[in-house]
Design a protein that fits this description.
Largest sheet: 6 strands, antiparallel
Mean pLDDT: 94
Structural class: alpha+beta
Oligomer: single chain
Strand order of the largest sheet: 3-4-5-1-6-7
Distance between the termini: 63 Å
Strand content: 5-15%
């Protein structure tokens, strides 16, 4: 039996119409004709399972599609892992679209994914559904389209993580439930991955003050080594790490200290001063600082002692 997985990538806008972008697994496209055999009211399978609202939602949206073959299997056999496979494909494109943030801030998110399994005629097949609940927003809390080019996506997709269909069929990794508890408990996760967890969750929160809390905590995960004078330590180290000159380093330092002031009030339930727009504007700045930090490799693999030594040398100009 063959399969086709389809997922809308909400608020991803491609810079050209009728675009097809082949990936290591599947394809990203805004050319709805690619799915004309699926997205039709005449397809009774789609109409009865997706419904007209989900069918219509694909119109004028960018989507992800994966085609493949499961071999000689029965519906009863596929029922044992069909939903798990639908989630696996959904996570596969989620991992890739998360990386889009490394180029620029965006509010791209995924919600519903549908897996069609069929023999010869897709309409005579059957479907499985997977869904996610997190709706991303930009640092400013805005939800709006962000344009990416084919070249940018192809470059990002060079390291695209690919799920193993055979592993899913064998009952392997559970792609439906994702938790980071084991990472926090073990303490073995690297600084960069820990920071990315905070960024990931910050993007799924629309409350500006909580976004600030998450962004500042992500910076702590990258450069802090103790809780003593924490706000000064992090502000100074971020400024040293990404500031190109004394003036920019001073600006970065003060921006992060402002972030700490908001974070403290948010964490302790104190009323904020200033306007909502001022917080949103600061978040856009912090978001860009974090992106610049996350693009670096050094010094995040250092242990605490080496990290301290690294910043001392930077501070005195060695």
């Amino acid at each position: 039996m063959k399969y086709r997985s389809i997922t809308i990538i909400h608020y991803l806008k491609l810079n050209k119409p009728d675009c097809r972008i082949p990936l290591a697994s599947g394809m990203i496209s805004n050319k709805t004709d690619v799915l004309k055999d699926v997205l039709s009211y005449k397809n009774s399978l789609s109409l009865n399972t997706l419904g007209m609202f989900s069918i219509d939602e694909f119109q004028d949206n960018t989507f992800y599609v994966v085609d493949g073959d499961l071999g000689n299997v029965t519906k009863e056999e596929v029922d044992a892992y069909g939903t798990a496979l639908a989630y696996a494909f959904l996570r596969q494109i989620q991992w890739l679209t998360n990386d889009f943030w490394m180029l620029r801030d965006n509010s791209i998110y995924l919600r519903d994914s549908f897996l069609f399994v069929y023999d010869k005629d897709i309409e005579r097949g059957f479907t499985y559904k997977a869904d996610l609940s997190m709706i991303n927003s930009k640092a400013s809390a805005k939800i709006e389209p962000t344009i990416y080019s084919k070249e940018e996506i192809v470059e990002l997709a060079k390291d695209m993580h690919q799920i193993s269909v055979e592993e899913v069929r064998a009952g392997g990794t559970n792609y439906r439930d994702v938790t980071q508890f084991q990472y926090f408990k073990s303490g073995k996760i690297g600084r960069k991955m820990m920071a990315w967890i905070y960024v990931f969750h910050a993007r799924g929160i629309n409350a500006l003050t909580i976004k600030v809390l998450m962004y500042i905590t992500a910076m702590e995960a990258l450069v802090s080594t103790s809780t003593a004078e924490l706000s000064h330590q992090v502000a100074e180290r971020v400024a040293i790490l990404i500031g190109d000159n004394a003036t920019e380093r001073q600006t970065i330092y003060h921006d992060i200290k402002r972030g700490y002031n908001i974070r403290s009030k948010a964490a302790h339930g104190e009323p904020l001063k200033g306007t909502e727009q001022e917080v949103a504007d600061l978040l856009v700045i912090l978001d860009e600082y974090l992106r610049r930090m996350m693009k670096l490799d050094l010094p995040y693999d250092f242990d605490d002692n080496k990290l301290n030594e690294f910043f001392i040398k930077k501070l005195i100009g060695e």
